[in-house]
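Hi,

Apologies if this is the wrong queue. I'm a grad student, and the batch job for Isoprenyl transferase from Mycolicibacterium duvalii produced an output file that my downstream script rejects. I'm not sure whether the problem is my script or the file. Here is the sequence I used:
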Amino acid sequence: MDLIPRRLKEPAYRLYEMRLRQGLSPSRTQLPRHIAVLCDGNRRWAREVGHDDVSYGYRAGARKIAEMLRWCDEIGIEMATVYLLSTENLQRDAGELSCLIEIITEVVEEICAPVNRWSVRTVGDLELIGEEPARRLRDAVSSTADARTASFHVNVAVGYGGRQEIVDAVRALLSKEIANGATGEQLVEAVTAEAISENLYTSGQPDPDLVIRTSGEQRLSGFLLWQSAYSEMWFTEAYWPEFRRIDFLRAVRDYSARHRRYGR
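Support response: The file is valid. Your script probably expects a header line. Output copied below for reference.
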């Protein structure tokens, strides 16, 4: 039962949000440059609010994606990566999966709208989601701003698996070396951390400084396994459709208060 009337709760939230924003460092160097988000808990949220059709949760979560990205852009975050569809998600019921892929396609098209002026990249294997959704995603992404001039960049992880990304990176690295006539010994020497990083889906981009996961789960679930080695983690019990601006600002505030040692 909700003990605090809505007419009192909303002004309190607005006041708290204002204080959180005022508390953020005015210097961009204190903010995360790259935020990665696992948008988790859509199905559980739908069931808890009384819906047997989990697509209700997917659609509620979809409406939150662009909203959260605007929060990032507003406070000066340079890059965000959102985990929309993992390779494990592809094992879900065919009807549910078809609906989810359509919703994700619509979300990416919304993110890529010219009004946003964002640069967008897909990370993952689009061949796994079907020919028509893959075409729509490629067309949407190709229409976005040039990464060299856009003030905000978005990665959408679709058909993504962290282990597969590392396998693909090593294969790409070795294929290049073989094409250049490398010997067996040279192939072994070519496999370095730097060389693998250069062949990841996110090649050329900074690693995430902050990883946010909703729904109370405290694990990466294969998300950006290589890139998140030294990322700060922030977990919340809120399901993704319930994730609020104050939750986002608290995550950024907590990140700014941490002293990052990078394993040293």
